[in-house]
Each structure stands twice: as C-alpha cells, then as structure tokens.
Amino acid sequence: MSAITRDEVAHLARLSRLALGDDELDHLAAQLDQIISAVARVQEVAAEDIPPTSHALPLTNVYRSDENRPSLTPEQALSGAPAAEDQRFRVPRILGEEA
Amino acid sequence: MSTTVMKYEEALARFEPVLGIETHIELGTRSKMFCGCPTAFGAEPNTQVCPVCLGLPGSLPVTNKAAIEGIIKIGLALNCDIVEWCRFARKNYFYPDMPKNYQISQYDEPLCVDGHLDVEVDGTTFRIEIERVHMEEDTGKSLHVGGATGRIHGADHSLVDYNRAGIPLVEIVTKPITATGEKAPLVAKAYATELRELVRSLGVSEVRMEHGSMRCDVNVSLMPRGASEWGTRTETKNVNSLRSVERAVRSEIERQAAVLDAGGKIVQETRHFHEDSGTTTSGRSKEEAQDYRYFPEPDLVPMAPSREWVEELRASLPELPAARRRRVQGEWGLSDLELRDVVNAGALDLIEETVRAGTDPGAARKWWMNELSRRATEQNVELADLAITPQQVARIQAMVDAKELNDKLARKVFEGVLAGEGTPDEVVAARGLKVVSDDGALAAIIDQVIADNADVADKVRGGKVAAAGALVGAVMKASRGQADAGRARELILEKLGVS
C-alpha cells in the first residue's frame, strides 16, 4: 500500500498553488511515496510509551522582554519584493479566497 | 440580488438559534509577538517590519513574554484553566497576508481552556461558556486595487502592508450558546460588550473595534423548536462594531429561517457582514476552502507556565467590571435599572472619576446622565469623547456647591467648555457667569422690578407672599439668570415689609 496517493499529492499541489501536469504528478507521487515510506520506518521502533517528538531540545519557556528593536526601512523591506507599489508589496490577485 | 428573509418574530416562533462567537483581540504590547518591531496603529506602510515578521530565510521567532502575560490574564479573568504545557502550531495557507505562507497559532493545545463569562440582558443573566483562549499573530493588511469596491472581486492586483503582521493576537472561542431564544442577538452583543470591558479593565489591549483591535466572527445556526439536533451553521466575518454583532445575528436568523422555510438547506460557509445594509452575503464555502495542515511549530519551544507565575498574575488582576459594578451600585445607592442606564451610557468610568475628584455621586451622575448625555447625543459622539474631563465636571459642581453658580449658569459653563472656550474657571470669567449674590447689585435690580410690577408688589404687601415668585422670576430674567434666586427672594420680601 502506498504511503501517499496520487490524489493526495494533487490536493497538496493545489493548496500550494503549484500547477502540476499529469506526468509530473505521476513522477512526484512515486518519489514522495518512497520518501514518506522511508521516514515512516521510524514508527516501527516507536513504542507506545514514547511520545512523538516535536522539538529536538528539552527546553520550555524561552521568552524575550517586550522591547523594540530597529525595523528595516521600507526600502530595505521591499528590496527583495518581485514588485512594489505605494510602499507596499504588490502581488497578483487571488480569486476565491477573500480574507 | 435581494435575499428572502422571514420576519424576525415568526423566525423565532419556529426556530431556536444556536450561536458561537470567536473574538480576536490585538494585545497592546510595545513589540510584536515574535520580534522587536513596534506595533503603532496607523504607521506608514511597511515601516514596522523586519526579517522575522517578513518571513525572510534564516530568521527565527522568539516569544514576547508580555504577550503571554496578557493572554494568561485574559484567561484568568474569563475563569479559564491555564494549561501546564502547550505548543504553538503552524497554520499553513496560501494567502499573501502572511509572508511566511503560514501563521503561528495554536491548534489542539490552547493556553487557556474551560472558562465562562456572565452577561446580563434585560435583567436575566446568561452564562457564556468559553471553550478556549489561544495565542497567535495577526496578519498583514491587503489593499485590492482595480476593483470598484476595494474588495478582491474584480481587482487586478493587491498591495500588502505587513505592519500588522506579527502583532500579538488572542482568539477567544465560546462554546455553543443555546437557549437564548429571541434574545440571541442581544446576548451576542452583551457578550461582546462585556468581553471588551473585561479586557479593557485588564489594560492589555485598547480593544477598539473601529481600529480592528477587537474583531468578532459570529456563528449562527437554527433548529426547529423542539428539535434536539443543531442545524448547519454559517460564520459571519467582518463584524466590527458592537451594534453590528447584534445586527449580524438577527439578519442571519431571518435569512436562514427563510431558506429552511422554503425547504432549502443551509450551506456551511463564511459570510461577510455589510455595515450599510446590515445584511450578510456569501463568501467562500467551507468544503472547498480549508486544509491548514497544522503541525507543531518547530521554531518555538513549548510553553509550560509555572503555577507560581500563574498565581502571581492572578493576584495582579484589577477589580473586574462585574465586581466593580456591584461595588459602585452599593456606594452610589443605584437601583438595578439606574445602574444599567449608567453602564449602557458608557458613563461608569466618567462618573467614578468625577466622584474621585470630589463630587457627590448623585451630582456626578446627574450631570453625566442628563446634561452631558443630551449634548453627546446632539453631537453624535460617545459620552467619553465629549471635550470635557471628569475633573472639569467636578470643578463646575464645586462652584455650584459654593453657590457661585446655579444650575442654569452651570449649564452655560458646560456649553462653553464643550465649545473649546477653556477651563470652567476661564469660561466663568470670560462669559461673566458668576451668581450675583452681592446685595448692592441685587438691590438695584429689585427696585427696578418692583417699580415695573407695582400691582404684583401690592399683592405681596397685602399678604399674598406666593406672588413674590413672579418678582423673583423677573429679577432672574433681568440678571440674565445670574442672580442668586434665594437671596433675591429674601431681599424682595424685606423691601416689601413682609419678611
């Protein structure tokens, strides 16, 4: 049984706004399946008394005090933007998802 | 396109509404949630951004301790349990209001759980159960260009300002609110109002809906009366005033009732509230929309607030609004109805500050609830936004107490202060508003009045003392309201030999 289906890969591609063709989906679904199957082998050794790990370091409560640090200038902030207008990042319209 | 609606009374006779309210509150910290950028409202676009809140490669977030203190205070004030351990989560979605392509939020491990907030509507108390209170970051602001309405439909492109991205945001989620019947819209409004007061009293947010520092999403579903299974709900976003919370619930009840009545089905969807019409329109439907692929945020370590810290914060909570209302009701001797009027007028703080500045509670309440409420209504502003301070009100009342002003003159002083003519003392001086109780000045006016009203004066001399009222009135008129009426009366009677 495969670890990830072609339909699931197509769904993830759509969520990520990646336009993948049929042959790309075939190709990537097979590759992702191999990767996930390899990683999934960890589950074979994980016993029930071992909680899933989300952080490599055994730390909690790392906070900073509420103080201001210098921000970038708008010029610096926008310097890497593909497009800018009126001191704002200019992006293509996105249909069907009004925030 | 017009929407069919059912009359509210009919809708409520046939259906029982179930509500759920999600409220977002921006905390008033100096710096953002995960970086040191400032959080000022209304700054020039993209002037409060850095590699962390722009999601640039290699940057790492670090949690703002003041924000965590703020949310724990909110949780405690809402009677929540503060969990012993929890994590942040990544909420992945593709929308340019977050440059990282995800928002740092909390998913199945919120910081505060299982609270409640009591609200009162028309003398009945409703307990609103709180499901969870969790910490997240606000998103940037998009400006849609090219569309007729500034909305995304028809827009050519969008312009994004990330100043707001990363500002600490607390989300408060209620459990389903049932059994409110026809009061559902009022209960929703009362909850939002009480929550705003509560958070304001904690001093952790400005909670100004017009600035977006408090925003409500309102879930509504209907079930036929007597049914036990809830209907499909819709979520109305964009509800940005207390009045709109009430209107949005009411409008959704009327719309859904008409759909169900016609044999239709409610679609689970996001709807947008329109301030102008007071109605909602369909946004995106839930089925196609959201798959956020939450996972624990690897860049931030878990939070494990110690019990000592939580208790310290609990001990630091100020007097909360409900307790404060009970206290002032006793201290000021108000009936339930009088207290409700004061609260609804937004006058509690103002009266309390006026009392603190030395005024008797009765007088303080009289000025704010009558004269000043009337002027606020005339100017179409909130009472607190009038151009007069509680200290100035106290000063005017002090002059009344010292008999330097009577009520009529005091009202002129209010008028002058509100018109920007200066402090109460400056207005009194500039307009010459002091009460004339000086006998010499009064005597001249009285002689003239007696001469002009010889017939009335004769009646008084003949023993009809009550007729003296007309002479006092004439003195007040001649002095343009500035005479000390009590003293004038004494002098008139003296002069006419009946004292």
Automatic annotation (TrEMBL), chain A:
The lineage of its organism: Bacteria, Bacillati, Actinomycetota, Actinomycetes, Streptosporangiales. Keywords: ATP-binding, Ligase, Nucleotide-binding, Protein biosynthesis, Transferase. The keyword Protein biosynthesis applies. It catalyses: L-aspartyl-tRNA(Asn) + L-glutamine + ATP + H2O = L-asparaginyl-tRNA(Asn) + L-glutamate + ADP + phosphate + 2 H(+); L-glutamyl-tRNA(Gln) + L-glutamine + ATP + H2O = L-glutaminyl-tRNA(Gln) + L-glutamate + ADP + phosphate + H(+). GO terms for molecular function: ATP binding; glutaminyl-tRNA synthase (glutamine-hydrolyzing) activity; transferase activity. It comes from Actinomadura namibiensis. Belongs to the GatC family. Its EC number is 6.3.5.-. Allows the formation of correctly charged Asn-tRNA(Asn) or Gln-tRNA(Gln) through the transamidation of misacylated Asp-tRNA(Asn) or Glu-tRNA(Gln) in organisms which lack either or both of asparaginyl-tRNA or glutaminyl-tRNA synthetases. The reaction takes place in the presence of glutamine and ATP through an activated phospho-Asp-tRNA(Asn) or phospho-Glu-tRNA(Gln). GO terms for biological process: glutaminyl-tRNAGln biosynthesis via transamidation; regulation of translational fidelity; translation. Heterotrimer of A, B and C subunits. The keyword ATP-binding applies. NCBIfam families: gatC. This is Aspartyl/glutamyl-tRNA(Asn/Gln) amidotransferase subunit C. InterPro entries: Asp/Glu-ADT_sf_sub_c, GatC. Residues 53-99 are annotated as: Disordered.
